[in-house]
Amino acid sequence: MTATTQAHPRADLAHARLSGARIIRSEWVKLVTLRSTWWCLGILAALTAGIPVLVAFALGEPWDAMSSSGAYGLYTWMNAVTVPIGFSVLAAAVLGCLVITGEYGTGMIRSTMTAVPGRLSALLAKTLVIGLTVFVVGAIAIAVAATLSGLILSGNGYELDIADPQLWWLLLAAAGYPALIAAFSVGVGTMLRNSAGSIATVLGLLLVVPTIIQLAGVLLQADWVFDVGNFLPSSLGTVMYTPTMDGDFMMMQGTIALEQWQATLAMLAWVVAALVGGALVVKRRDV
């Protein structure tokens, strides 16, 4: 009696081929399944959309006829819309740190790097996903804030021109700055691999270091100290989304005055530097 063995056909694994789109999709799935993602995005959206409405109600009517001009109306409107960015960016920073350090904390990073042996593709995909997510959520919240606060201000007598190019640049920058900070935080989190340490580092850079620079500049009476402070992420972000009247530079301490496009490029340099540091750590250290 002989036993025959039937060979099983080899499974077709063509559908499992690694691709950039699949890596991005996997990072998206991991992002949306974390509770911390929804908490951080919810806080970011609530602050971004809610505070400008409260500011618009508090402003009331313009004081005189000159204050109701188009330039002043746009300036007032955009100041109201961008007021919460300094707060909502903190939620973006925390989220950017958690999306990468959480994987190191749970050990999931081993599965990620096994699935993506090149490693850098996973890091870039994660950065792209978190950056675009924060940008889209921020843009929607800013659109809601601009619409509601604009209706309130126009009803109070402010002249608002929605066709002004500066309006659209500021709205884009106000959504882009938190997204850049989130991407920067991914790089920092990749280098430090610890949630508490990464969050403390990024928030310290955003909140504590500028205060130290200001105190040092005042005590030393040195313009170069203020010039250094003008290139910190928080200062660059402020230049990016803060409106000015008649195209003037925003008032800054020190000898360096940056235009909005220059501040944007400098902020991009911070993001690239953090991601390069993270890439070096990912390639050289085991997970």
What's the topology here?
Blueprint: H1 20-32, H2 35-59, H3 70-82, H4 85-106, H5 108-115, H6 120-155, H7 165-192, H8 195-220, H9 223-229, H10 233-241, H11 260-284
Helix pairs in contact: 1-6, 2-3, 2-4, 2-6, 3-6, 3-7, 4-6, 4-7, 4-8, 6-7, 7-8, 7-10, 7-11, 8-9, 10-11
Percent of residues in beta strands?
under 5%
* Mean residue pLDDT: 86
Q: Structural class, please?
A: mainly alpha
Please tell me the total number of domains: 1
**H/E element sequence:** HHHHHHHHHHH
> In terms of per-residue confidence, which ranges show pLDDT below 50 for 5 or more consecutive residues?
7-11
Radius of gyration: 23 Å
- Largest sheet, strands/sense/barrel: none
What is the 3D form? globular
**Number of separate strands:** 0
How far do the termini sit from each other?
Answer: 53 Å
Give the number of helices.
11
Helix content: over 70%
